[in-house]
TrEMBL record:
GO terms for cellular component: cytoplasm. This is Ribosomal RNA small subunit methyltransferase E. It comes from Planococcus antarcticus DSM 14505. Keywords: Cytoplasm, Methyltransferase, rRNA processing, S-adenosyl-L-methionine, Transferase. It is found in: Cytoplasm. It comes from the Bacteria. Belongs to the RNA methyltransferase RsmE family. Residues 71-241 form the Ribosomal RNA small subunit methyltransferase E methyltransferase domain. One of its GO terms (biological process) is rRNA base methylation. It catalyses: uridine(1498) in 16S rRNA + S-adenosyl-L-methionine = N(3)-methyluridine(1498) in 16S rRNA + S-adenosyl-L-homocysteine + H(+). Its EC number is 2.1.1.193.
Length: 245
């Protein structure tokens, strides 16, 4: 059954209005009409809902709550050094399917791509749309927040608000006594919010490594193989899902 996210608080009469592209999708693409049902998600809960009217906007009545736990037990934010091309679109879509809580793009020292301020807002809006569509497709009750692009300094400042900060560092993969990601996950059972930092194609610079170590971030290997920028976050989320779900 098709799922739609609706912003705002649930009214007392439990009747809400779906507008914009979602309303158009319901009426024109799905060709649903009065009396048909869909799943409406509000305030982190999914509701079996019935369509009351389907004109320009769609009015639905929220029914019973769908009692299915679909969200990751840990709130995992992925911080990505800006990658080339459309890799961030892929990361956003697939990481949303795998349970990511939020995405924080940042301008790393070795990022080849530079977002100019005039275009970054539109790019974030597009990524937010990608996240919403992926959340609907994967039957989630939370749409990951796509943060505006951060400088590395801003990333360090935000990192202090998380229960744990993990850095995926390829140099760890080359060490014979590398710290296994699975072992690090065992230490997160009493943690709620986790920030995982991934570098761009060129990796994290020595200066960035030193700065992350100064805030006591945990450096980890994601295995003996070097993963691509767009693969590493998906590997990490899959491992977290395996450990905690």
């Amino acid at each position: 059954m098709q799922r739609y996210f609706i912003k705002g608080e649930i009214p007392e009469n439990r009747i809400v209005t779906i507008t914009g592209d979602d309303a158009k999708h319901i009426a024109k693409v799905m060709r649903q009409k009065v009396g048909d049902c869909l799943v409406a998600v509000m305030e982190g809960e999914a509701y079996f809902s019935k369509i009351l009217s389907a004109d320009f906007d769609v009015e639905v009545e929220l029914g019973e709550t769908l009692q299915v736990q679909v969200e990751m037990p840990k709130r995992v934010t992925i911080a990505c050094g800006l990658p080339k091309g459309d890799k961030l679109d892929l990361i956003t879509q697939k990481a949303t399917e795998l349970g990511m809580y939020a995405l924080m793009p940042f301008s790393a020292e070795r990022s080849i791509v530079k977002w100019d301020n005039s275009k970054s807002e539109k790019k974030v809006e597009r990524l937010q749309k990608v996240a919403k569509e992926a959340a609907e497709q994967s039957h989630r009750t939370h749409v990951p927040q796509i943060h505006r692009i951060h400088s590395f300094k801003q990333l360090l400042s935000k990192a202090e608000s998380y229960d744990a900060v993990i850095v995926a560092y390829e140099e760890e993969a080359r060490q014979g006594d590398r710290k296994r990601f699975a072992e690090i996950l065992k230490s997160l059972y009493d943690k709620d919010s986790v920030l995982i930092v991934f570098g761009p194609e060129g990796g994290i610079s020595e200066a960035e490594v030193a700065a992350l170590k100064s805030i006591r971030a945990i450096f980890a290997s994601l295995g003996p193989r070097i993963l691509r920028t767009e693969t590493a976050p998906l590997y990490a989320l899959a491992a977290i899902s395996y450990e905690f779900e």
